[in-house]
Amino acid sequence: MQQIQISEEALPILKAGIGFQKRLLSMKAENYLTRLKGFEKKFSMESDKFLKNFEDGILGDDAEWYDWLFVYEAYNKAIQKKRILDGLSL
Q1: Which of 6, 22, 25, 65 is packed most tightly, with the most Cβ within 10 A?
Q2: Is residue 32 part of a domain?
Q3: Is 81 helix (H, G, I), strand (E, B) or coil?
Q4: What does the H/E/C string look like for 13-41?
Q5: 58-84 pLDDT, tens per residue?
Q6: Is 74 helix (H, G, I), strand (E, B) or coil?
């Protein structure tokens, strides 16, 4: 693990910025999850199954599939970034 040095006066600013990012990522993830649940309900399919079917070419090229793919990937990225921030120790 790499360490960085931060001055005492910069630490509260950094902590506040990280806290803000964590809250923002939580809100984004919650929004994306709500949208994922909407797709899952509409198409009676879990997102993991959708992804497999989409990647296997079973679903075709309808624009709505690409919307679902975007939301699925955005949700996972938001969760991944939040986990990284949660793992920071300041």
Answers
A1: 25
A2: yes
A3: helix
A4: HHHHHHHHHHHHHHHHHHHHHHHHHHHHH
A5: 999 999 999 999 999 999 999 999 999
A6: helix
Q: What distance in Å separates the CA atoms of residue 16 and residue 31, rounded to the nearest whole number?
A: 23
Instruction: Answer yes or no: is 17 within a domain.
Output: no
pLDDT digits (tens, 9 = 90+) for 15-62: 999 999 999 999 999 999 999 999 999 999 999 999 999 999 999 999
Q: How many domains does the chain have?
A: 1
Q: Is residue 3 part of a domain?
A: no
Kindly list the distances between the CA atom of residue 59 and the CA atoms of 25, 50, 86, in Å, as whole numbers in the listed order: 30, 8, 36
Residue 24: CA count within 13 A, CB half-sphere: 9
The answer to whether residue 9 is domain-embedded is no
* Range of the structural domain that residue 59 is part of: 23-86
Please answer whether residues 90 and 15 qualify as being in contact, where contact means their C-beta atoms are separated by less than 8 angstroms: yes
